Amino acid sequence: MTRLSGAGDDQTNGRGTEPRSVALEIADAVDGLALLWSVAAQGASLRLSPHQLRALRILEAEPGQNLTALAEGMDIGLPTASRLCDRLEAAGLLERVLHPHKRREVQLILTGRGRQVLSEVAERRAQALAAALATMTPGERAALSGGLRAFRNAHERADKEVGGTFL
After folding, report:
1. How many Cβ atoms sit within 10 Å of the Cβ of residue 109?
2. Would you identify the CATH topology of the domain 19-146?
3. In what helix (H) or strand (E) does residue 86 lie, and over which residues does it extend?
4. Which residue from 8, 50, 57, 94 has the highest number of Cβ atoms inside 10 Å of its Cβ?
5. Where are the chain's structural domains?
6. Can you tell me the distance from the alpha carbon of 101 to that of 25, in angstroms, rounded to the nearest whole number?
7. How far is CA 149 from CA 26, 73, 97, 142, 145, in A?
8. Do 71 and 84 contact (CB within 8 A), yes or no?
């Protein structure tokens, strides 16, 4: 794993309770999780880039978005979003359909195959996570679950305090 701390860091063992020490430990765990997440997704019947998967997940959560909304949701430019959708459409995962009430607007809709691929990726990721969690004791899993819940709550509180995404 990549260690984000410097060579002179006095908390290199990752056992400290100070926010910076815990942050470094979490960063290492996130690196491992990201690798597990990526490898599981790449084992699906159709290999998609993280960008493509993200677009499909956004469209699954909010069906019928137009290209502008997708580009904004992904924080990418319109030309990039258009090319991304071209590739997804060519793969049979997405279709563009005219909006029923706005003649000039095109909606982006997942196909059955698109939903199937997302389901397969989600299942592969869940299996990979479950396999890793199975090697932990019940107490370790409970501690992890409680810690994640506390982190999520703290993040939500901090996000509300700054009025947007907490970075």
Report:
1. 14
2. Arc Repressor Mutant, subunit A (1.10.10)
3. helix 78-90
4. 94
5. 19-146
6. 51
7. 14, 25, 40, 11, 6
8. no
